[in-house]
Amino acid sequence: MPDEKPANWWTTLPGLLTAAAAVITAVTGLLLGLGQLGVFDGGRPAAPVSGPSTAGAPQHGGTPQPGGSRSGDGANAGWTVALPAERKYRSVDVEYEILDAAVRPDASGKVALSFTIRCTNHGRYDINFWDSTFRLGAGGVNYSPDSGLNELVAGDSSKSGDVRFIVPADTRDVSLRIKYAQGESAAQLAISPP
């Protein structure tokens, strides 16, 4: 038998598969790292990290108002939202609490109504905390939020987020609807212009 040279590992199928897996793992890790740094956010500013807050406490420079409502800051001064007395709504393992609300002028003839909401998952499995859970009834029209809220809340934990609606500037009485798999709850709120 003549002396055979050992084959280079690059020319074997297991060697090629190992190399391909290493390249895929490295590229995936790089993309995930860049995504965490916000490289793929298209120039949008990073969303502020929100934590638990006290209802009626000012956020973003707002001024607390009696009864748990809040006026906007600076140019928004004078607009207020009166929060309902009942702010916690629960169905089976999920509970939503309205922590805060604010209103500010938006595009011509519109206002932006924002709610800071805490979602508490009393169950064992992750649940979605997203815009699809909320609707705002105003003047016989149901509005969907445009805030882009889309989070997972792990079992036995809580997370806070902002839900924003754009409504006509003459809107005064609204109903925040919270939809569950088993039905829905509604919170009645009043908006006061400057």
The H/E string reads HEEEEEEEEEEEEE
State Rg: 25 Å
Q: What is the level-2 CATH architecture name of the largest domain?
A: Sandwich
The first-level CATH class name of the largest domain: Mainly Beta
Give the spatial strand order of the biggest sheet: 1-2-3-13-12-8-9
Q: What would the average pLDDT be, to the nearest integer?
A: 78
Give the tally of structural domains: 2
Overall number of strands: 13
Q: Approximately how much helix is present in the residues?
A: 10-25%
Structural class: mainly beta
- Sequence stretches where pLDDT stays below 50 over 5 or more residues: 44-76
Shape: elongated
| CA-CA gap between termini | 98 Å
CATH topology (level 3) name of the largest domain: Immunoglobulin-like
* Percentage beta strand: 35-45%
The main β sheet shows up as: 7 strands, antiparallel
DSSP summary: helix tally:
1
How does this structure look, described?
The chain has one helix and 13 strands. 12% of the residues lie in helices and 43% in strands. It has a seven-stranded antiparallel β-sheet, with no helix packed on it. Strands 4-5-6-11 form a four-stranded antiparallel β-sheet, with no helix packed on it. A two-stranded antiparallel sheet has the order 7-10. The radius of gyration is 25 Å and the shape is elongated. It folds into two domains: 10-41; 63-192, Immunoglobulin-like, CATH 2.60.40.4170. It is mainly beta and 194 residues long. Residues 44-76 have low confidence and may be disordered. The chain has one helix spanning 13-36; strands at residues 63-65, 69-71, 80-82, 88-91, 94-105, 110-121, 127-130, 134-138, 141-143, 150-153, 157-168, 173-180, 183-192. The termini are far apart.
